[in-house]
Amino acid sequence: MRLVAAPSKLARPFGDRVETDARDAAHLARLLHSGQIVEVTVPTVTQEAARDLVRARDDCRRDLMTARHRLSKLLSRQGIVYSGGSAWTGRHELWPRGQQSADQRCN
């Protein structure tokens, strides 16, 4: 029988810091006998690739939101505020291109 267990989910008596192979083996045998080992599965290559894609998408989404907030705050500090409806719609995404900075407005 082959079983993969998460070390973080193994019950350990408080204060038991001595680790030897014999003690660890006896502890694992007791946990296995009492059914207290939580089995974990190792993801397949396909599952791991899907998880990696989801993580990459989440990172891109977070980066996009950060850039949007940074741009809106920059424009806000310049006194340029969008008032044409919902933010970050197609029309709103085109709007910043037509804006001028305070320096450009003075000239």
What tags apply to this protein structure?
107 residues; elongated
Q: How would you sum up the global shape?
A: elongated
Helix-strand sequence: HHHH
Question: How many domain units?
Answer: 2
For this structure, the quaternary state is single chain
**Distance N to C terminus:** 79 Å
Number of helices: 4
State the share of residues found in helices, binned by percent.
Answer: 40-55%
Strand content: under 5%
Alpha-carbon Rg, integer: 28 Å
Mean pLDDT: 85
> How many strands?
0
Main sheet makeup:
none
Which structural class fits the helix and strand makeup?
mainly alpha
Walkthrough of the structure:
The chain has 107 residues and is mostly helical. It folds into 2 domains: 1-42, no CATH class; 45-98, no CATH class. Helix content is 53%, strand content 0%. The protein is built from 4 helices and no strands. It has helices spanning 21-34, 45-77, 90-94, 102-106. The longest helix has 33 residues, at 45-77. It is elongated. The model has no long low-confidence stretch (mean pLDDT 85).
